[in-house]
Amino acid sequence: MRLIITWIVNALALLALPYLMQSVQVDSIGTALVAALVLGLVNTLIRPLLVLLTLPVTLLTLGLFIFVINGVLFWLVAQLVGGFHVAGFWSAVGAALLYSVISWALSALLLKKNDRA
Question: Can you tell me the distance from the alpha carbon of 113 to that of 107, in angstroms, rounded to the nearest whole number?
Answer without folding.
Answer: 10
